[in-house]
Amino acid sequence: MAVAALRARRTAALTALRQLRGLAKNTWETQKGNGGRWSTARPAASAVGSTIRATATRGFAASAAGDGPGRIPLAWWMGGCSAWVFSMVVLGGVTRLTRSGLSMTDWKFTGETPPRTQEEWEVEFAKYKRSPEYMKVNSTMTLEEFKFIYWMEYAHRMWGRVLGLVFAVPCTYFAYKGYINGVLGKRLALLFAMGGGQGLVGWWMVKSGLEEDLLVQHEVPRVSPYRLAAHLTSAFAIYSILAWTTLNLAFPQPVIESISQSSKQALLKVRSMVIPLSALVGVTAISGAFVAGLDAGHAYNTFPLMEGNLVPSGYFQLSPFWKNLFEDTASVQFNHRALAMTTLGAITAFAWRTRTLPLPPSTRKLVYAVVAMAYVQVTLGVSTLLTYVPVSLGSAHQTGALALFTLMLGLLHSARRSPSAILSTSPLRVSSSFARKATA
Predict the structure, then answer these.
(1) Which of 419, 440, 420, 438 is nearest to 430 (CA)?
(2) What is the value of pTM for the model shown?
């Protein structure tokens, strides 16, 4: 338990005892003034218990607010890790868009040593020449061209491994200092395991593009869209936990505890709408992984129609039908378009419905930011499609998806109902019966 939490508990207990002594004295005076009858003194005894409970709760609220020395460093650390994962997602998108992801044909958990000499580069290039991508697409590639895609993939892998150190070393220090309680410790252990697993999922994805028997039948060898979606989903999950933990540490007390009753009701309405909206944003982003996995952005490069039709002629042509959701180019792109426009419409309707609600200023700003980012993201998506997916716009579109998701997390966090347990323990509770016995 953190030192600050222990101090808050001691302060709360001492304050409660002082209140108990004062109210017990008043209760005794009341009893004497009524000829020894306790019937009229019982309400005062009940008040003792209520006062103690309120005092103890306030003491632990101060602990939850993170007045100790550990909260700010923890928040900066978690925020830095969140930003690191954000950059990992962006770098991963650039690696995919430059078709660099299949340049390294092996993987080691501890990391690969890059080539240093001309001979080592020739050996590495020879490995790549045996891959389906080289034989079917890049048979004219030179060694210098290979070096570019190799360094892109190497940077993506090593950026993730360095993140492991950025996470583990400060975590060890903060645990030694006593800043991490049981709740936060379990969350950090989960994040560490998920981070290690993400590397394995990444290699599992890449492997699907290196072996002929694992390749989805296309002209251009590419990784499995299922594994690509799994890799992106895992990254989003890690980022979500990191970002939420950062917000808990930076803003431990919910906004709802310090606003008027009407604003509280408005904030609860917002929360009920933001939860499904956040899920819709997440599903739309993951559907984009299937668009990327199938290179579906290079087909039907018109908007809003596809081959002159609102619904493309090849929509849902595969059997069984569920494969159309994940393996058919026309269906996958149409579904992503439909989800994107549904998300934009839902966010617009949400903003319109909440325009008259008495929301706190911080929540109102987040609503505006979400609406603005939603329109920016749809604009980026349409521009990327119409220009045949250039690297700059494609990476900006993927970045926009995570930025919009981040704003949704922030909006949901601002409307939460209870403080986080990562900086506090359960508040001390004193019953009314104990208070009555103490005054007897």
Answers:
(1) 438
(2) 0.81
